[in-house]
Design goal:
two-stranded antiparallel sheet, 2 strands
């Protein structure tokens, strides 16, 4: 398999794993949005002959829905958000060209997970309750309801 081509199935699997967790947590609306994302992941792929690199074209609406869907997911499921919120909100991810979105998203996730694990090791003796988003479960439900609405709209158009 050409380099980079294997990222798409991993992304879909990652989304489906989160959908399962959303369902277990009772976040049905956000799970619905995740299923829409997993079943409509991109609008096309092309190979750059010179570099043998695959470029996946993500619809800007898909990327936007992914950002808010993932934001709701991590709000509900991750306690320490000081590292994981920025992975979605940095300009290089939000403003990525459609064919570069997956690359920048994967890179930001890789870096965020490394920083998250480092913070966990460094702060292992401290209780980090103050870093949780207040009323995170309720906020995740609200975000999920908004995501479900936009997921339905996205499904109708794609």
């Amino acid at each position: 398999m050409a380099e980079g081509c294997e990222q798409l199935p991993k992304l879909i699997l990652n989304i489906l794993e989160a959908v399962g967790e959303d369902l277990l947590q009772g976040n049905r609306d956000n799970a619905h949005a995740g299923l829409v994302l997993a079943t409509n992941p991109f609008s096309g792929t092309h190979l750059i002959e010179k570099t043998r690199e695959y470029k996946h074209h993500f619809d800007p609406h898909w990327a936007s829905l992914y950002e808010t869907w993932n934001l709701a997911f991590i709000t509900a499921n991750i306690g320490d958000l000081r590292v994981l919120y920025p992975k979605l909100l940095i300009p290089s991810v939000i403003n990525a060209a459609p064919e570069d979105y997956l690359y920048y998203r994967t890179l930001s996730l890789w870096l965020a997970l490394k920083l998250y694990l480092y913070a966990k090791i460094k702060d292992q003796k401290e209780h980090r309750e103050e870093l949780k988003v207040p009323h995170s479960s309720e906020l995740a439900q609200i975000l999920g309801a908004i995501n479900a609405k936009y997921a339905d709209e996205y499904s109708r158009h794609h």
